[in-house]
Amino acid sequence: MLAYLVVLFLTLRDIRIYRRTGLASYRKGAFKGLMASTVVLVGTLLTTLFPNPGLLIVFIGLFINRKGIREKVFRDAGTIDRLLGKTDI
User: Fold this and answer.
1) Is the dihedral of CA 15, 19, 21, 27 positive or negative?
2) How far apart are the C-alpha atoms of 32 and 17, rounded to whole Å?
3) Residue whose C-alpha is closest to residue 30's, from 21, 80, 58
4) CA dihedral of 51, 52, 54, 59, whole degrees rounded to 10
5) CB-based burial, 54-88: b 16+ in 10 Å, e otherwise
6) What angle do CA 21, 84, 44 make, to 5 degrees?
7) Considering only CA atoms, which of 70, 45, 4, 55 is closest in space to residue 82?
């Protein structure tokens, strides 16, 4: 469940950054995050019945969630601002 929450949080952060900046890489990251969160949720639910295949599906979802190269949107932002998705642009 922790993996699902992390993927969902990062997806919401990407959506927030995309809405503020309009950069295509964050839109693409948000779509990948939505797909990955669905896969991780299915894997999490499957883990209760079949632990090994369920964890494999969770890891596949985490692999899908990899983000590509991003534009610089943080210049003087602190750690908390980066975590929450506040941008300098």
Assistant:
1) positive
2) 15
3) 21
4) 130
5) beebbeebbebbeeeeeeebeeeeeeeeeeebbbe
6) 110
7) 70
Q: What is the pLDDT of residue 34?
A: 94
Measured CA to CA, the distance from residue 65 to residue 15 in angstroms comes to 14
pLDDT in tens, 9-56: 989 988 988 988 888 888 998 999 999 999 999 999 999 999 999 999
Measured CA to CA, the distance from residue 27 to residue 54 in angstroms comes to 28
Which helix (H) or strand (E) is 62 found in, with range?
helix 51-64
pTM above 0.85, yes or no: no
H/E stretch holding 83:
helix 79-84
| CB 44, CB 1: distance < 8 Å | yes
